[in-house]
Amino acid sequence: MTTANDGTLSLQQFLPYRLSALANRISQSLAIKYSKQYGISVQEWRILAVLGEGTKLSAVAITNRIAMDKVAVSRAVKRLIEKGLVIKHLDSKDQRSHELALSNEGIEMYQQLVPIALEHEQQVTDNLTLKEQQSLLKLLSKLDNAPL
Known about the structure:
By secondary structure, the protein is mostly helical. It has one domain (39-144): Winged helix-like DNA-binding domain superfamily/Winged helix DNA-binding domain (Arc Repressor Mutant, subunit A, Orthogonal Bundle), CATH 1.10.10.10. The protein contains 6 helices and 2 strands.
C-alpha cells in the first residue's frame, strides 16, 4: 500500500503520515477558532477537554490519555494554572503527586468551547454519511488497539 513498484515510499499513501497530517490540519483549524477569542493553544484545549470530562488527573495521566509530549503537557498545565483555568491539589492517595482539575473559570471556558469543537467536528465530517462516520470511528478504534 505504501511502496511504489521501484521500492520507494509513497508518502501520500503512508498511513502514519496521512493520519498525522490530517490530525494536525484539523487541530490547527480548530485552534484558529478558539485561540483568538479565548487565548488558548491546541495543547491547552486538549488538557481542558480531558479534565472537562470531570475527572481529576495527574499530569502523567493526562500525558498518557491525550498522547502528548510530557514537556508540552507540563508547560500547558503551567499556563492553564496561571490563567486560573486549572487548579492543582495534592493527591490524597500519593502525597508526592498532584491532581489537576478545572477551576470554576475552567469549567465555564470548557462549556463555551465544547459547542465550537462539536461544530468543527461536524464541519469536518459533513461530507461523510452517518454510516461512513460510524465506520471511521470503528476503524480508528481498531487501529488504536493494534499492537505496535
